[in-house]
Amino acid sequence: MRFHMINGGPKPVAPFSHAVETDGFVFVTGQMPDTPQAPGVLPDGIAAQTRAVMENLRVVLAGLDLDLAHVVMTRIYLTRFKEDYAEMNDVYRGYFPPGRLPARTCVGVTGLAYDALIEIDLVCRRPT
Hints:
Layout: E1 2-4, E2 19-22, E3 25-31, H1 46-63, E4 71-78, H2 81-93, E5 103-108, E6 118-125
Parallel strand pairs: 4-5
Antiparallel strand pairs: 1-2, 2-3, 3-6, 4-6
Helix pairs in contact: 1-2
């Protein structure tokens, strides 16, 4: 098992690794919609926060020599599920080619770090 912290990656908001790798699978910790340059500062609205989360996930994946094409499963957490679900989906869908969407779970939650509207974690498979 390998524990990864990515140089230049998002600043952890709790004690965790950016990713843990075992048996060809890579489990990427849920990312927040802040940036490595401005921890805790969030953009306004679900569309901007979804883009920020996806970009943070790209940073972590790039640090592992992976990209979104390696994602097999996503979990999305929304604090305003009914309000933000459709708009989040519109942004999220743009990060994956048609017909290549990962398996996914999306749940409403009562709160996230930094009072974020969204958090997304990933499961990836490293090519063999």
